[in-house]
Amino acid sequence: MQTSLAPYGYTDRIEQLYQSNFERPCPARVVRVDKNRVMLATTDGPLHVAFPRLDEQCATGDWVQLGTNSENEQVIAGVLERSSLLARKKAHDPLSGAQVLAANIDVVGVVVPVDRPISHNRLERTLVAAWDSGGTPLVILTKADLSNGNDDVVSQVIDQAAGVDVVTTSAELGDGLEELMPRVIPGQTLVLLGPSGAGKSTLINALAGRHLQDTGDVRVVDGRGKHTTTSRELIPLPNGAVLMDTPGVRGFALWESDAGMEAVFGDIEELFADCRFQDCRHGPEPDCAVQAALAAGRLEQRRWKSYLKLQRELARLDRQHDEVAKRQYGREWPKIVKAQAKARRQPSPPG
Ligand SMILES: Nc1nc2c(ncn2[C@@H]2O[C@H](COP(=O)(O)OP(=O)(O)OP(=O)(O)O)[C@@H](O)[C@H]2O)c(=O)[nH]1
Ligand SMILES: [Mg+2]
Ligand SMILES: [Zn+2]
Question: Which CATH architecture has domain 259-344?
């Protein structure tokens, strides 16, 4: 096997993927995407290339095929099929589509700092997106040394994580690192997601055992805080695992969700089967299982509201997709809708 890319997660599986797609594989992994150029890890070391003009754009973590253009410059000639993809809706632009945050990640670390009140809404959203990415979510509590012995925070998070493993760390004290490390085995990629100042870069430095990423005090200048990390970047660890540092995100607007909503809110969706009416809207209808659970305190008001809000957001997105497709396909649109509906009715192939 080609080993010089091993620190960036080049495994037998990736090698086979290249061999089945290209006659002459020329592998590289996207380490960072800047405004006009992309930094790659190649078999000959780091390489900067222009942002590719492909139908499909590349993201940090992508495996790409290198080629040359007519001027004999090295370029990205193709993007390999992704094993997982973390995306969110682009901010401030309702129709602009998805922003791909990271590709080919095995573990999605949802970083929750315990030095401030937990944002349940953010945690839920990030968990939904993590499930939908195809990676395995892992909740990482940070700054445990600043929690004032507040076990409440930890138990609240465990409660909300709905079966996702929770690891408590303090980069300051070096606590929890030996618990975290076995979660990312050699060849795997772990992305860290969380608010600015959560300690993502500090944790990466602690895991790497040296200062690789700049870290910074949390300064609230304009209510937006100050982001120390400004781009998503792959960082190889000595044990052969790969970490991805990301800039703190303020919000996490969902893109598409199916498995994610079910994983995080499955207990709520199960209740629907017990409502008297199949089309119950879970309001004033008689014998509504949701209202009964709320009244009995078996379902938290906050979680129910949060669920409804995310569903509305996803429904709005669906309508927007439809609008865009309508414009794109014009009169072909009704046919496409029918074909899609038919495809959905058909059982998916085994495997
Ligand atoms: N006490 C304590 N402070 C920590 C710990 N981890 C991080 N910090 C501090 O928290 C601040 C922010 O840490 P960063 O690692 O820069 O946070 P970040 O999540 O990378 O932030 P962005 O890059 O802006 O997204 C720094 O001043 C760190 O020294 C910890 O475990 N304990
Ligand atoms: Mg950072
Ligand atoms: Zn109901």
Answer: Orthogonal Bundle (1.10)
